[in-house]
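Can't paste images in this forum, so I'm doing it all in text. The chain is below; anyone willing to post the predicted structure tokens underneath?
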Amino acid sequence: MTAHTNKTTSLVTTRFNNTLLVQLPSRLTVIEAVSFRGFFQQYVEDASITKIILDFGQTTIIDSSGIGSLITNIKSAKTKNIHLVLWSVNPQVKLAFSLVGLDKILNIQANTEAIIPTISRKSQQLPPLTHASVRSPIKRIIDIVGAILGLSVTAVLFVPIAVAIKLDNPGPILFSQTRCGWMGRRFKIWKFRSMVTNAEALKSTIKNQAEGAFFKNDHDPRITRVGRFLRKTSLDEFPQFWNILIGDMSLIGTRPPTQDELEQYEILNWQRLDVKPGLSGEWQVNGRSKIRNFEDVIKLDLRYQENWSLGYDFQLILKTFIVVFNKDSGAV
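Text version of the structure:
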């Protein structure tokens, strides 16, 4: 049996036969997550290792980057046919796992709690580490009020929009798609349908004009005539006020990625999921139709997180109205 401590990652590893025990640090946030990812990849390449145990006994703080590193490592272990087991997962970390459905796919062994407790009863009840905007009750109240007003407008516009969609291209009025929100949590987003009914099946045939983990095409042939108008005026987004009302989204936040986009994320990219996705945000008011590089999207998302305040949200809401009523704006 051999033990090794990695000072950079605060990881303590113990090797016995074909099993590797990894004791994770107290925090698994972006810095630790990047190192954990690199460290894990070294060991999965060792053909003699058939089982890896991740000991979460000391881990009390995990963020979206930590979740991202764990998801990536799960896939790597599965590819190499390595049995992955988790020990000593405290309630706070389990809550973070449950948000993204990891609690259903991870092998979390019971009765493996540390002999000497590392967290108090009080800290066990804390939510996962997250951005202040997600914890703000005032922001949530503003979201609810805005969602109710938005849904009222949507109800008035629903019939004429529905008729236009049906006459232009027969099929469903609404379009739903699974997106990834706060901490990578999956939810179903709603929009007025702006594309042909088999748009998802045709996506692979359309050239992506963007660089990185998102899709963009200025002249996407899947978009209908009415759909182009709905996108230009952002009316296609109005059903998302329902997503805001039930708490999946916020009025202001980041663009929610699709599942296939999330598959392409590097660990650092997961930082954008520290806040709730928004109906609008930095990306939408700063030339969303012109941005082609995913790294530019990340910069805007992180700028929002750094500058966030209730006042800043109101500024972005005002800018959103200006952009929507600008004839040269809107999605294409």
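The longest helix spans residues 137-168. The chain has 14 helices and eleven strands.
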